[in-house]
C-alpha cells in the first residue's frame, strides 16, 4: 500500500461536555474511498470538518503527506476539496456563475468545461436559472458538478448523496470509484448504504471507547 | 351582480379585457396629458406673483394628486383582498405600489425645484412637504414588503394589511405634522392662496390630471397583466397563452 | 402663445432651468416607468417560454436525470 | 518518507491572490444586484433617520444648519450598522464562507475583498445620497462637500470595523443586537472626527489636518481589521 496522504494520530474531540471520539487513528491512502459511519450525533460531520481544518476543537495530530498539517496549510488547502452539508451554492446566482466563482479561485477552467460538468450532472438547459428556483436535488447537482472538473486529489464529502435520486446516486458512486482509480482519495459520510469495492471504513460511536476498527 | 363580481375576480377574463382597453387608456391619456402640458407650458398666461415658474404646477399637482389617490385606491383594494379574497385586488396593490412611489417622488422633486425660485430654498420642513415625504416612505415600505415575501398569497395579504395600517395612519400623520408645524413657527414662505384661478390655468391643469389618471390606468393594467402571468403560470391558459407567443 | 419668441419660451424670464428640469424629470420618470413595465412583462413571458421548453425537454426523456453521466471532465 | 508517490497527482498550479479577491468582489456584487431591495434598505433607513430630526427636534434653519452634519453622520453610522448583519450571514448560511476559509489564498485578503464589496453597495450609495439630505437640512455648499469627503474616508472604516463585529457574532442567535453593542463604541472616534471636520469647515478653519487624521484611521483599519475579522471568522466557523 502506498504511503498515506492524510494521517490522523490519536484524535480526540469533545463537544458539549461529551466525548465524541478519542484515540482515533487512521490513514487516508491514495486510491481509496473511505466511509465515515456511525449513528446520528456520533460526530461524523465534526470529524470531516476537523480533517478539513474548519474545526480546531480537537487534540491529536493531523499529518499531510507525513508532515504536520499546520506547517503547510497552503499546500494542503490547494489539494483539498471539501463539500459541506451546505455546499456553498449562492441561491441568487445561476449554476454557471456559482461554479465559476467556486473554481476561479482554485484554477482557471473554461466555460465550456463548466457547461460540460453541469451537463454531466444532468443540468443541461439550467445554466441560466437562479439556483433558488432549482429543486434541492438540482442544487445538490450544481455542487457535485464541481467534482467533475476537480483536480484536487483529496475529497472530503459530507452527505453528498442527500437529495439525489437513484440515477444520481449510481453516477456519484461511479465517480468516487473513478476518482480512486486515478489515484485520488475520498472521505465520505452518508446515511445511504454505500458499499464500494475496496472501501475503507471509519466507525464512530459504535464502542464506548470510540476505537476505530476497520 | 355576484356573477359579475366573480367574473371580475377571474384573472383570465381580466387579461383579455385589459388588452382591449389598454390602447384606449394609453392614447387618450397621452393626448390629454401632452395637450394639458403644452397648453400649460406655452399658452397659459404668466402668473402675476410667481412669474413663469408656476408652470411647474401642471406636473406637480397631477403627480401629487395621483400619488395620494393611488394610495386610497390601494387601500380599497386592500380591503377587498382581505374581505373577499378577490385575486385581482391584491394584484392591483402590487402593481400600483411602485407607480405610486414614482409619482410621489416626482411630486416631491418638482415641489423642491419649484420651491427654489419661489421660496428661495429647495426644501422647507413644512406640513405639506413633510407629509408627502412620509407618504413616499409608506409607499416604499409596501413595495419592499411585497418583494421580500416570496410566497405570493401571503405576500398579497401582508401587503394589504400594511396598506390599511398606512391609510388609517395617514390622517393621524397629517394632523400631527400640521400640529408640529404650528408648534415651530409656521413657514415664513407661504404660497399665496388665490381665491380663483383663471380658466386658462385650471383647464390645462384639469386636462393633465385626467391624462395622468388614464395613463396610470394603463400602467396599472400592464403591470397587473405581468403579475397575472407570474401568479397563474401553472394554469392551462397561461401556458397556452405563453406558448402561442404571448400577445 | 404666452411668449413673444422661442428664445423667451426657453428662458422663461430666468425660470427656464427650473421649469425645464421639472418637465424633463417628470417625462423621464413616466417614460421610464412605462418602458420598465413593458420590459418586465416581456421578460416574464420569455422566462416562462423557456421554462415550458425545459419541461417539454424533461418529459421527452424517460427520466430527467438519465442524461447525467457523472463522468469526469479534464479541462486542458 | 517519500512525499510524492507516483499515484497521487498533487495540485501545484495556483491562482493569484488578486484574482481570487476579484472573484469574491464580483460574486458579491452580482449577488447584491440580484436582490436589489437589500441595497435600498440601508439607504432608505438613512433617509428616514435624518427625517426624524427636523420632526423630533426642530425644523428651524439655524438649528438644522448647526447640527446637520452630526445628524447625517449618526444616520450614516446607524445605516451601516443595520447592513452589517448581512455581511457574512448569507455566506454563512449557504456554506460559501466555509469554502472561502478553505481557499488557499490568505483569508484576511479575501475578507478585505468582501468588505470592499460591502462598502461598494452600502457605504458608497450613502455618500451619493448625502448631498440631497444636506440640501434638505440647509447645509451650505462647502459644508456638504467636506461632509461627503469625510464620509468617503469614514464609511470604509465603519465597514472594516463592522466586519470584525459581524464575524464575531456570526451564528449567534441575538447576533444583530449584540453586534451593535460591540461595534458602536469602536465607531465613536470616526464619528467625532467626521463631524469635527465639517464643523471646522463651517467655521472656515483649514480641514487638511482633520482629513489626514481620518485617512490615518482608514489606513490603520485596512491593515488591521481584516486580520481580526479573519481570526473571528475561523472561531465562529469552528463553533458551528
From TrEMBL, chain B:
Coiled coil, from the record: none
Residue stretches making up the Cytochrome c assembly protein domain: 19-184
Membrane topology annotation: Multi-pass membrane protein
Entry keyword annotation includes Cell membrane: yes
Keywords: Cell inner membrane, Cell membrane, Cytochrome c-type biogenesis, Membrane, Transmembrane, Transmembrane helix, Transport
Transmembrane stretches, start-end: 21-44, 56-84, 91-115, 127-146, 158-177, 201-222
Cross-referenced InterPro entries: Cyt_c_assembly, Cyt_c_biogenesis_CcmC, Cyt_c_biogenesis_CcsA/CcmC
Keyword check for Cell inner membrane: yes
Compartments (UniProt record): Cell inner membrane; Membrane
The protein's role, per its UniProt record: Required for the export of heme to the periplasm for the biogenesis of c-type cytochromes.
Protein family (similarity comment): Belongs to the CcmC/CycZ/HelC family.
Name used for this protein in its record: Heme exporter protein C
Species per Swiss-Prot/TrEMBL record: Marinobacter xestospongiae
